[in-house]
Amino acid sequence: MIYVGPHDVPAPTASMTRPRPPSSTVLGKVVALLDAFTPEDHELGLAELTERTGLAKASAHRVLADLVAAGLVERATGGEYRLGSRLFELGMLASLERGLLEVAVPFLQDLYERTHETVHLGVLEGTEVVYVSKLGGHRQARTPSRVGGRMPLHCTAIGKVLLAHSPPALLARVLEQGLTRRTPRTITMPGLLREQLERAVETGIAFEHEESQVGLVCLAAPVFDRDDRPVAAVSVTGLATRFQPEKHVAAVRAAAAGIAATRGRSAELRGD
Questions:
Q1: Cβ neighbours of residue 154 under 8 Å, at least 6 residues apart?
Q2: What is the pLDDT of residues 179-192, one digit of tens each?
Q3: Region of 189 on the Ramachandran plot (φ > 0 left; ψ -120 to 50 alpha; else beta)
């Protein structure tokens, strides 16, 4: 079994729905430069960075020098820039994701051993799911997800089960943005999506059948906090030609419930 890292599989580019400070500010320039990198383009030259960000060459060069000095960006052998290891260190300090991972990893490992398919842990951010963990093996399905990557809520099992247990205002935002079609089987009709979300509330499980990528099927269950709010979701993904998600409902539910219970006990011990 292996952990799949941020650059192991292709993924959609960073979300354009996240708020970004104005590029006229120093912080705005920093964010624009960091956001310019993608899993496919993790090393970029100054010319490409200025083209992607719209920053003046001198301004970009000055900010990049400060980022290199801080360890947030590194210089590659050929002179290109790439994200620095300091960003990873800071990311691992994010309290929600770090606490979740510490509790969830044993359950995710157990779920992988039961299914030998790709296992995800994802959290809700805005109108997207962010993947905080991904486990797979030698025969894992090639998926569009990556650790730290984002996917729409309406076309992923994790996204749908989080959306199903969120306030109605979130669904209204998702529908207002539009249900983008990613494959021929992506749900783009609001009524059909609502039916699936209602079923997910009733059963505690959401399914995806080739809706984010042709050939992949998936099921997911929510991880609740002590107030019955969804803080994360667990999923298993496999190839449509061999994986039958309906057979793994109990295992996915058990993993999600185990994470929730352990997380709750940890919070009680800390006095949270």
A1: 160, 163, 174, 179, 180, 186, 187, 193
A2: 999 999 999 999 99
A3: beta
Interior angle at CA 170, CA 169 and CA 174, nearest 5: 120
Percentage of the chain modeled with pLDDT above 70: 81
Q: With contact defined as beta carbons under 8 Å apart, do 59 and 29 qualify?
A: yes
Beta bridge pairs of residue 128: 125, 152
Asked if residue 223 has pLDDT above 70, the reply is yes
Closest CA to 132 of 161, 163, 103: 103
| Residue pointed to by tokens 């650790």 | 147
93 CA to centre of own chain: 17
> What type of residue is 128?
E
SS3 189: coil
Q: Tell me the CB-side half-sphere exposure of residue 169, using CA atoms within 13 A.
A: 2
Question: What is 95-270's CATH topology?
Answer: Beta-Lactamase (3.30.450)
Residue 113 vs residues 19, 121, 213: alpha-carbon distances, Å: 39, 15, 24
Domain boundaries, the chain: 15-91, 95-270
Do domains 15-91 and 95-270 share one topology? The answer is no
Fold entry, domain 15-91:
Arc Repressor Mutant, subunit A (1.10.10)
- DSSP 8-state symbol, 143: -
- pTM, two decimal places: 0.69
Contact 121, 255 (CB under 8 A): no
